[in-house]
Each structure stands twice: as structure tokens, then as C-alpha cells.
Design brief:
Oligomer: single chain
Strand content: 35-45%
Distance between the termini: 62 Å
Largest sheet: 5 strands, antiparallel
Order of helices and strands: EEHEEEEEEEEEEEE
Strand order of the largest sheet: 5-6-7-14-10
Number of strands: 14
Length: about 180
């Protein structure tokens, strides 16, 4: 039995159509569930369908770039001993970490260095915006946290400041976030 040629629906009027055999150069239009191109590469089909480069990018994986143009996945999430990070293909990066401090007594209106300083889990291209969230576990006084000299790879020096007029004991953790660009 000879092979039967593929058939297609050809609109005739309104919502009706008729079946016909495909001829050389025919293609199934997008509205009918086809690609809208008679032949060509996968890239030609993506163009016909109006799909950009994200249509072929992995959503999760290793993000990368070449000359400022994203070449890898869209989002990368990772963690190591220095915390967690999220990178996006557009160059945006977030890093998160909880710095823990041993309890220490702080004199009134004094400051002490909060150790350890934070090395980011993924380096930034330039010093990022750095934010310390409200400390947890502080004593009855109010403690302020400030950062001195952040770089592209670490948060710099962190200090606790006792703004109370009495000695306070501080045994706290600080939630840290750094926001910047990885390229």
C-alpha cells in the first residue's frame, strides 16, 4: 500500500474548512497549531513564534555571561559555609547570612567589633549595598549595627553600638543581606 500524503485543513469560509494534501512548500500556520514556517532551523521557528533567547535557556542552573550578554541559566541559587546567594541572568545578585556573636558585656555608649566579618558566598563585581536586619536576642538596651569598608568580596568590619546609658549584655545574631551585581 503506498504511503498516504499528509493532509491539512484549509479554511474555506468562516469556521469551515476542507482537507487537502500538503504540497511542497506548504506549512501549518501558527493559528492552526503549526510553526508558521515551511522549513528552516529551530531558530527560524522561534522567530516565527515570537520567542526570544529565554525560550531556550534553562530557568535554574549556572548563570553566565559573555561580554555582558547572558549565556547560561536565568536564575542560580547556591550556598556554602559563607551563606546563600541568588544570581540572575541580568547581573543582579543577592547574598544572605546570619552572623552569630558570643555574648559580651558592652559599657554604656561604647562600641565593639562584631566578629566574624562576613565573606560573601559569591563575590560581587563591585561593593554591594549592604543591609543588616534587626538583631535578634539583644539585651534590654538598643543596639545599632554599622558596616565600615565593604568590598566586592566581604562586608568589611561590623560593629555593635550600645546606645543605652548603662552596660548591656549582647548575645545576638544579625541577619545580613548584600545586594549588587555579579558582572
Amino acid at each position: 500500500m503506498p504511503a498516504q500524503a499528509p493532509i491539512k485543513i484549509v479554511p474555506t469560509s468562516g469556521t469551515t474548512g476542507e482537507l487537502r494534501e500538503f504540497a511542497a512548500g506548504d506549512f501549518l500556520g501558527i493559528a492552526a497549531g503549526g510553526t508558521g514556517v515551511a522549513a528552516g532551523t529551530v531558530a527560524d521557528v522561534r522567530i516565527a513564534l515570537g520567542l526570544g533567547s529565554a525560550a531556550v535557556a534553562a530557568i535554574l542552573g549556572t548563570v553566565s555571561q559573555s561580554g555582558g550578554v547572558p549565556t547560561g541559566a536565568i536564575v542560580q541559587r547556591g550556598s556554602n559555609a559563607n551563606g546563600e546567594f541568588v544570581r540572575f541572568a541580568d547581573g543582579t545578585q543577592f547574598c544572605f547570612f546570619t552572623l552569630s556573636n558570643t555574648a559580651q558585656s558592652m559599657a554604656a555608649d561604647a562600641q565593639v567589633q562584631f566578629t566574624p566579618t562576613w565573606t560573601f558566598p559569591a563575590a560581587f563585581a563591585a561593593p554591594p549595598i549592604y543591609v543588616d536586619l534587626v538583631p535578634t536576642g539583644v539585651g534590654s538596651g538598643y543596639f545599632n549595627v554599622r558596616v565600615v569598608g565593604p568590598t566586592a568580596s566581604n562586608a568589611g568590619s561590623l560593629y555593635m553600638i550600645n546606645t543605652a546609658s548603662t552596660t548591656q549584655t549582647c548575645g545576638t545574631s544579625i541577619q545580613c543581606i548584600a545586594i549588587g551585581r555579579w558582572f
